[in-house]
């Protein structure tokens, strides 16, 4: 699936639509993982903000680049989900994620939705059923999506 979004709003609306579709999908063993890939400034955080809004989270969701992870409690459960974790793996190795973020426990929790920016940095830790979404600017070739099947691409306009 490839989606072109002209504005941040459109990216966020797409996130909401996708969230609606994903939460109706077949049962998973653990967390619902959204693995976000793509160059700097290509809309990964904007997309994550759309997910957060769809989950009723009111706090301003910003890139957790320096804190690496933020966990938000949903005000009320939505489709069995109670928590939303936003991870920025840009500066993170798999060993760090395992040790410091307690990622394996988080990923085992069926009541959690996890969005990971720069997901390929911790690819080895992510479950096989993670939904890989790649972001790119319109005039660049997107990063190849290595996961077959459920790969989704979002393209945003190239900045002037
Ligand atoms: N269609 C669009 N969708 C999303 N963002 C857009 C769009 N058009 C322009 N933008 C702008 O592009 C930038 C995207 O930034 P964002 O922080 O979401 O990217 P990112 O992939 O998270 O970057 P980083 O790699 O630094 O984490 C924002 O400044 C946003 O305003
Ligand atoms: Mg970001």
The strand count comes to 7
Shape: globular
Level-1 CATH class name: Alpha Beta
pLDDT < 50 stretches: 142-149
Spatial ordering of strands, largest sheet: 1-7-6-2-5-4-3
The largest β sheet comes out as: 7 strands, mixed
Keywords:
160 residues, Rossmann fold, 4 helices, binds adenosine-5'-triphosphate, binds magnesium ion
Structure commentary:
The protein is an alpha/beta fold. The protein has a single domain (2-156), classed as 3-Layer(aba) Sandwich (Rossmann fold). The chain is built from 4 helices and 7 strands. The protein has helices spanning 8-22, 44-54, 94-100, 103-107, and strands at residues 2-4, 32-38, 69-78, 81-88, 112-117, 131-137, 152-156. A 7-stranded mixed β-sheet has the order 1-7-6-2-5-4-3, with helices on one face. Strand 3 (69-78) and strand 4 (81-88) form a beta hairpin. Helix 1 crosses helix 2 (44-54). The longest helix has 15 residues, at 8-22. The two termini are 26 Å apart. The structure holds adenosine-5'-triphosphate (ATP) and magnesium ion (MG). The site of magnesium ion has 4 residues, from helix 2. Adenosine-5'-triphosphate is lined by residues 5-8, 10-11, 38, 40-46, 63, 117, 135, 156-157.
Quick recap of the structure?
This protein has 160 residues and is of the alpha/beta class. Helices cover 24% and strands 29% of the residues.
SSE topology sketch:
Blueprint: E1 2-4, H1 8-22, E2 32-38, H2 44-54, E3 69-78, E4 81-88, H3 94-100, H4 103-107, E5 112-117, E6 131-137, E7 152-156
Helix pairs in contact: 1-2
